[in-house]
Design brief:
Helices cover 58% and strands 8% of the residues. It has 2 domains: 78 residues, no CATH class; 34 residues, no CATH class. Strands 1-2-3 form a 3-stranded parallel beta sheet, with helices on both faces. By secondary structure, it is mostly helical.
Length: 113
Amino acid sequence: MSKRDFRVLLDTLFLLPFLGLVTDEVVMYSLLKLRGAELFYSELSILEAMWKAVKIVKKEDFGVILEGLRLIKRGLKIARVDDKAVELALSLYLMGHRDLVDNLLYGIAASQT
């Protein structure tokens, strides 16, 4: 299987470097290893990343975030929330996993196969 056949839905943590936010070395190393793979993002992760960014980024640095969003939209593919993703997310929630964003991301990833 080539890397191009490898499809990955990036979690919010992996989008933060695009927005100019520092993450740990493991994330940065992992992003390098994913070069050549087909990468996807969810608008849910964009929202979650923005919640993190507005807490720590100064107004004068908003341009970096906007440029990062453009890079994400240009370089990655969008993975949309469909009915199957919502159904899986709700099932996970009922099983006790209370992070609805994570549940939806899992649902999106699982419904894309």
